[in-house]
Amino acid sequence: MSRRRRSQRSGSDSSFAKNLFMSIQRFTKLQTRKLLLSAFASGLAITANSQVIKGTVTSKDGSLPSATIVISKTTNGTVSDLNGGFTLNAQHTGKMTVTVTYSGYASKEIELDVKKGINELGVIELAPAEGTLADVVVKGTMAPSQMKAMSIKKNSNAIMDVIAADAVGKLPDRNAAEAVQRMQGVAVSRYHGEADQATVRGTPFAWTSTLLNGTHLPSANVTGSRASVLDAVPSEMIQYVQVVKAVTPDMESDAIGGAINFITRTAPEKRIFNVSAAAGYNNFSKNGTYNGSFVYGDRFLKGKLGVIVSGAIWDRQWGTDSYEVTYNTNLADPVQQKSINSLLMKRYMGERQTYGTNAAVEYKFNAANKIFVRGLWDKFNDIRPVYESYFDFNNNRYQYNYRYSYYQTKLFGGELGGEHQLASRLKMDWSVSDFCSSYYLTTPPTNDTKGLPIATFRQSVPGGFGGRSSDGRKYISYDAPDGVGDDPMHIAAHLNNPSEVMDPTKLSLQQLVLTQLDNKEEDRVAQMNFKYTVSPKLTLKAGGKFRTKSREGINIASTVYAKVGGDPIMLSDLNTTSFPHPNTFFSEIGNPYNDVIMNPLTKDQLFNLFDTATLRKNGFRDVSPATNAALIYNGHENVTSAYVMGEFQATDKLKIIGGLRDEYTATTLNSSQVSTVKDNSTNPATTVTTVTPITTTNNYNALLPMVHFKYSINDNANLRAAYTRTFVRPNFADLNPGQSTDLTTSIPTITIGNSQLKPTFSNNFDLMGEYYFKNIGLFSGGVFYKDLSNVIFTDKSYATIDGTDYLVTQPKNLDHATLFGFEAGINKRFDFLKGFWSGFGVEFNYTYCHSQTEVNRLVLNADKTYSTVTDKTALPNQSRSLFNAILFYERKGVMVRLAGNFRGRSIETLSTQLGPNLYTWADNNFTLDASATVNINKRLRVFVEINNLTNQPLKYYLGDPNRPTQVEWYSQRGQAGLKWDIIK
């Protein structure tokens, strides 16, 4: 099994599909330029039989997406796009009236005499309607943004939720992941206090497709996952966020959980210029923070040329105390598996910097043709000095680590595209793009090999640690077989010799490690779409996309130097500095570990230890594992997709959207197999390692039918139903063909990727209802069900090869899984109350998910044979309950929001060795944030933001909440500032 080299095709591809998509690929590469030139020429000379009405709908607050435009006394109409633009086929020439309507605004009727060709209405600006709603629109700080989001949702073909830029700006959310966490059914992961990944309906993060303007974001995720890391994207770069829960055929369909589409800013119809500046404080690090942003947009050349530029910077100090426990799960005895191996007391105290800029230019040649260029550059720097003190109970010793890391994340690239009205009934759009994401370490700066430098000191405890049960092991009291154990959050040394405390004069430098991390992923994409209006009731759409992805990974490969000679080097012998804020070390649990606080190395001292001459002088030898070669890989993936879909207005109330999408994926990966064996010809036996290059491929086809039904009960209510088939591709790290074999351990081990993994497919069924209040509000709810096949998980199992038992770790496919649930949400203003109380309102949404799959586990019997046990369990990362609760007040230029976010517990790692009782879980997590804004005048406002009001910790545990594996605290952070609309 481990020697297999030859590729096998998985999935449901056929020779017909392969030939079809190879033809599309060749066409895309060779004919795109010719087709675009032809299309542009066609647009410049629209046929004499064409009669098209074009325009852009705006308000004083910017463009109005999903405005309704109808030719009076007919059913012929359309809705505006995200930029407010619309195209309406008039069907005939002559005098007619066009009516433009938008919730909260006065409708406008425009009389015109339609001629053959294009009839340009220009910019149509709507004014707020009279009455109570108009007062909300004019004076409310969130209302215009909410109306835009609800209008997009109401008129969309897909089942989706939407949030607009102004709403993002009113919440204390500084990156893209934090911005999207407020939306119904969205869950986020938090990394040291800040959200960094998002997923829909609590599914595994790789099951949610993260898009930028409708195209996949490349991911340089450290785990090799396809889940995009979003902490590099400032929230100020975003115009809209669409959370799509049931996709349509014209959308990328590797989205079992759903898709999150971040739409960047585009050129406005009139000049805008605003700036913001804020300063803040982090209560953990006791340091200041600052944040600033700007947005400038304008039009030139009589409106033909539009530009927009935005930028943001967020610089902050941060800190974390992390309490981490490991258990002896490698032992055979099920009781002793729960005994404590080590306790780690860790403090982070660093700096984070987020920078971003977004620019877009568009040029309208005429009413039928425009092109655009847009690009972004985002950077996230995460500087982390880390101070780690250990109780190593199994080995009766202390350990102290100091590390200084400089993680960097980049996301940059650009897109060129165009939109063309080829005829009165035919539109075409196209784009080509190139985006790159990278995640890497650059320390120490003077070393040829970059990575994460770690210095490890150890001190033996001859008297040993006390507080052990009768079997001689350490337990928390919950697991202790005879009741002798510690409080799980106050695990103590219980020294048998009280004088053997952790001491810098006794901590000896034993090991230096440089952990390498350098992941890069680049996507180049070309796509084209055609839309043909057959009649006012039927529209057809078809298109194709080709994406070529390159991936390079050095995934946590370590250079290790062990001290094998020379004089001992004590921590006290080296240059050190003060431990940061020692009086607050684990203050949340009563400061029980002040006696293990050590003054750390200076940064320069740490870097100097890795100098080659210093290493030799002090008796260090390179003992790096040969298996590093298996962790270095590169690959290419080509995806060719095509779709056809139709939108049919079956009746005045019923609309049917259906079609078919096909995606053909061809993946090639290059890595190495590493084998380590004992050479018994020597005495004592030495080990011999061989490294063999390996290349594998994985090709498959995904045929994806979809149908949506949208029934308009009345002007304020929709009922939606959908069947969609979606899928997710295997993660690159799982496909890595690299294999390492180690025969030097007590149980020989094989660690191997699986280049033959099948993609996970899902048949999805959704039923959703929406009711839109007349005063800018919404009530929605529905149910969903997913039938899944080939779910991927990491398997640990035993295998016998040539008479030898091996422990094999490899990602594999599960046969079947299911997921069902329901969701409901309400956004309601209390305008039925009087005076002051009318300013209150509430936003609340809740999602319930239940998933189930079966995992086969091998159990070692007393006679040393194995039997199979089947465990029923939830999917990894699947939270059963998610909710957001926001209480807000908006009146007379004052806005206050109190926002709570809850993510229920979820399994983080499955284990086919240990079973459900020892799975690793993420515990329930509830965070509470607040923000307030006061309008000084029409252009200037002040704001205040506070995060994590309740100092909610992040907690993981092994099987039971009483058995913690990691608990982190972050304290509160906040800022106050000004936003000035210089030109509005």
UniProtKB/TrEMBL annotation:
Compartments, as annotated in UniProt: Cell outer membrane
Keyword Membrane: yes
Pfam families xref list: CarbopepD_reg_2 (PF13715), Plug (PF07715), TonB_dep_Rec_b-barrel (PF00593)
Domain TonB-dependent receptor plug residue range list: 154-259
Keywords: Cell outer membrane, Membrane, Receptor, TonB box
InterPro entries xrefs: Beta-barrel_TonB, Beta-barrel_TonB_sf, CarboxyPept-like_regulatory, Plug_dom, Plug_dom_sf, TonB_rcpt_bac
Keyword Membrane: yes
Homology family: Belongs to the TonB-dependent receptor family.
Protein name, entry field: TonB-dependent receptor
Taxonomic superkingdom: Bacteria
Record-annotated TonB-dependent receptor-like beta-barrel domain positions: 473-949
Main location as per UniProt: membrane
Any one cellular-component term (Gene Ontology): cell outer membrane
